Batch of 2 targets.
Target 1
Amino acid sequence: MSREILLVTGVSASGKDYLLNRAKDHEPRLGAEVPIVSMGSTILLKLAQLGGESLDRDKMKHAVSNDVMRGVVCEIVSDLVAAYPAAVLNGHITYRQQGELVSNPDVDAEINPVAYAVVVADPSDIAEWRASSDANRRREQETVDEIAYHQDFTIQTAERMAVLLGARCQIIENNLGNTDASSLILATMVTDICPK
């Protein structure tokens, strides 16, 4: 079964959601014929359906085993493949777990995307965006230097997984001066996985 999945990733507050929303202006099928799936929210819904304890996005990565996570992701991907010719998954391929940066290559292999879009931004901007918009989040705190390191780790992980899975990897820079160009790149990647 073909899996035409674009995995959009990047550190928290790098602008993934923002650029995906802007990309809809360039690719009207995005969000409708090509759904955008927030992996964090969708995983939480699946875990709740399984009768697990009530978790939030920030607690989930500490409380759920890799095997359970892989099974939940497998179910999400299977549902998408059955329902849509292509989909965009918005999530984190690296994250902080008890102070350490980790990735889960088994989950990436289960998703098996045809392309990675890694949204990056200036670490100082990311820190500022987090401070101004994260009143409800309880993520582990990162300094600007830690954000920079986390972002580099995410890029390297995406590039390695892309090679391993035979996928394309595109780094998309998000800053106030290039929002339209960056969202167009993202829209073009969607068009590539689901041609008109």
Target 2
Amino acid sequence: MIINITIKLLNLYSLIIFLRAIFSWAGTSNLHGHIYLFLCKITDPILDRFRFVSLKLNLPIDLSPIIVIFLIDFIKKILIKTYV
């Protein structure tokens, strides 16, 4: 039961990170600006920990959303194999 809830929360967080990435590529209107700021507030604490990859490689794009989504997927797979 707790594992299922954890997996659903991880899925939700992956979706939020994906939405943040999409919003960062699109222009922001007032409504979208507020949504984007909310998404940033939720995701930045985790994404900031992985932004060094793009900085170290001197890349023009931020790879942290991709890295975090892969990490979340890895954690979900471990949870499923261990507890299901």
